[in-house]
Amino acid sequence: xxxxxxxxxxxxxxxxxxxxxxxxxxxxxxxxxxxxxxxxxxxxxxxxxxxxxxxxxxxxxxxxxxxxxxxxxxxxxxxxxxxxxxxxxxxxxxxxxxxxxxxxxxxxxxxxxxxxxxxxxxxxxxxxxxxxxxxxxxxxxxxxxxxxxxxxxxxxxxxxxxxxxxxxxxxxxxxxxxxxxxxxxxxxxxxxxxxxxxxxxxxxxxxxx
Length: 209
Known about the structure:
By secondary structure, the chain is α/β, with parallel strands linked by helices. It contains seven helices and six strands.
């Protein structure tokens, strides 16, 4: 798959052959959904907690006698129907973690990247090194390359070579900066365009190719 390569000024500088095993793979919707559901579930802390009847302070004495008051019979003031009483069938801390084999996760990523490529939502970038951080310049470049929508910008690594790019793009509105080796299906789904420098493409090929 031959696509154009651009520079930060939006000028075409060449072409690159994207590997079909990654950007023209078989699209498996069910697998992408499973990977997305797993990632969202694993992000949950599971720290929600409520007090049940055995954990609420109080109770003990019967609030009023069983008969003769005209009121419904009650055994304790910590029953769920009273304000401040224990809750019923409410959540307790739990682990939401879901397992998924690595090969299935990688196949889901290939499917997602194929969808993005088929939608012309993948923008290839040439040299992205910057001598000094320039946020305004980076904002203009992202707008030129990807438009006004939400953008996922993949950075090759955190080395000094790309420090200027990271500092220039990390605070841009509607732009998410992500290390290429942390590419995940949730961020791909959330983005309208994906900017992939050639150096980041090599990182992606190293674990998906």
